[in-house]
Amino acid sequence: MFKIQKNIKMIYNLQGLSKWSDTQKSVEPMPVLFIGHGSPMNGIEDNLFSQQWKKLGQKFPIPAAVLVISAHWLTRGTWITAMEQPKTIHDFGGFPKALFDVTYPAPGNPELAEYTSKLVSHSHVGLDHDWGLDHGTWTVVRHMYPEANIPVLQLSIDYAQSPEFHYRLAKDLAQLRKKGVLIIGSGNMVHNLGKVAWDKINEPEYGFDWALEMNSIFKEKISSKDHQSLVDYMHLGPAARLAIPTPDHYYPLLYSLGLQGEKEEVAFFNDKAVGGSLTMTSVMIGGEHDFVI
């Protein structure tokens, strides 16, 4: 299901940071999100999950741009989309035609892409002109910003690297929050498609015992800011190995946690299990939490 993309178009700019930041006023740090994105159908359905995404977009300050770390862009090396107009990627199969007909024509921002690539100090970030916005991004962001008038970029996940690498890389992105960029990790905390109870997929809040157990452990570790245990998730017991058989949907959580400030609190929303072996549990870091359900 998950394809490792090897990018062949590379653009390097060694002239230093771009001037993008010069055009952006410093602001209070934007909140950070980890979104459990679940089924691609959430991109066109009006349900509890998409309604919460819409509410977030309405309550947040209008961002200068949105940067998404999606579980569905796995690469060798780290890349950031740097095109003027990213395409809408329909990276799934077996869904209704209405889902494939959706396009989300948000612009990109090449200058922001270059600026972001230079912020990362311990790894090279290449500028990509081949990818676009996959369903880990557009199915969520189109509910938040339906007019598609805010630049949206994606940062890839180097699938050859360790959990610690991804957590550390996220810390290099913190400056973007002070320039009005909304950063979203998009995956699922508990994500085991091989064990989905398809006969229960429409049953509200149905979760296997191990999935609910692991989801509770994740929430407790997040609430107590025990990030190291979450980086070392494979030491959290047998339930962790069932919840995360592959780390693609888990790594975006580490990016979001890596951006948490020392005094910033968290709030959980969309805290529901689906199909037994998936959870939609999402996290908001920083910002005002009074409207999160």
Automatic annotation (TrEMBL):
<protein>
    <recommendedName>
        <fullName>Extradiol ring-cleavage dioxygenase class III enzyme subunit B domain-containing protein</fullName>
    </recommendedName>
</protein>
<keyword id="KW-0560">Oxidoreductase</keyword>
<dbReference type="InterPro" id="IPR014436">
    <property type="entry name" value="Extradiol_dOase_DODA"/>
</dbReference>
<keyword id="KW-0479">Metal-binding</keyword>
<dbReference type="Pfam" id="PF02900">
    <property type="entry name" value="LigB"/>
</dbReference>
<dbReference type="GO" id="GO:0016702">
    <property type="term" value="F:oxidoreductase activity, acting on single donors with incorporation of molecular oxygen, incorporation of two atoms of oxygen"/>
</dbReference>
<feature type="domain" description="Extradiol ring-cleavage dioxygenase class III enzyme subunit B">
    <location>
        <begin position="56"/>
        <end position="265"/>
    </location>
</feature>
<comment type="similarity">
    <text>Belongs to the DODA-type extradiol aromatic ring-opening dioxygenase family.</text>
</comment>
<dbReference type="GO" id="GO:0008198">
    <property type="term" value="F:ferrous iron binding"/>
</dbReference>
<dbReference type="GO" id="GO:0008270">
    <property type="term" value="F:zinc ion binding"/>
</dbReference>
<dbReference type="InterPro" id="IPR004183">
    <property type="entry name" value="Xdiol_dOase_suB"/>
</dbReference>
<keyword id="KW-0862">Zinc</keyword>
